[in-house]
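ENCODED BACKBONE
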Amino acid sequence: MAEWFAKLKADFILNFIDGDRWKWLVEGLGNTLLITLFATIIGIVIGVVIAAVRSTYDKNYENLRKQGGIKFIFSWILNFICNIYLTVIRGTPVVVQLLIIYFVILASVRNSVLVAVLAFGINSGAYVAEIFRGGILSIDNGQFEAGRSLGFNYFQTMIYIIIPQVIKNTLPTLCNEFIVLLKETSVAGYVGIMDLTKAGDLIRGRTFSAFMPLIAVALIYLVVVVILTQLVKILERRLRRSER
């Protein structure tokens, strides 16, 4: 047992203390959280827009079709573009999207973190859009009629009445999307970003010891996810209390 602890201590010193390699994990965690946070914000913005376009088209399709004209054509084109976006993004792996954006679309951009934020944000937007669309369609039509009775047009009703309710109803799901996105950023190392997973891989490459750095990375992810999960549960309880 003493020999095992001595070996464990030696491995810990080799992987994290020597050369201050623990700082790589700190830097990697910082980049991971930074990418996740801003990608989530971009994803929410894209998701709200896509969900509003698609739900508006679905709810008003019959009226728009009967009226015809440029308004119907414009709505149909916007809905078609949104469907193409959702199909492409949800139908291809996030790592492939990241590589395409980094090496093809934004090849001239030198800031890898910025590219990763955009790539993961665009990817997240497709899933957030479906979350919001489901939330909008779940709102009773009486809420739309109430907005009209107050003198709001459809878009004003969406902005001032519907969207706030949808955000409240879908907030726990959005928080879970944040957790999923956090784990998805583990592929950011493919474009040379020092994320948490890449930091562990670099330590492994320097020390030729796989167990300690990879277990450390896994534990850090686990701790962060557990903390976020507990925060989501607290948020859900508060939302339930506020509904009473």
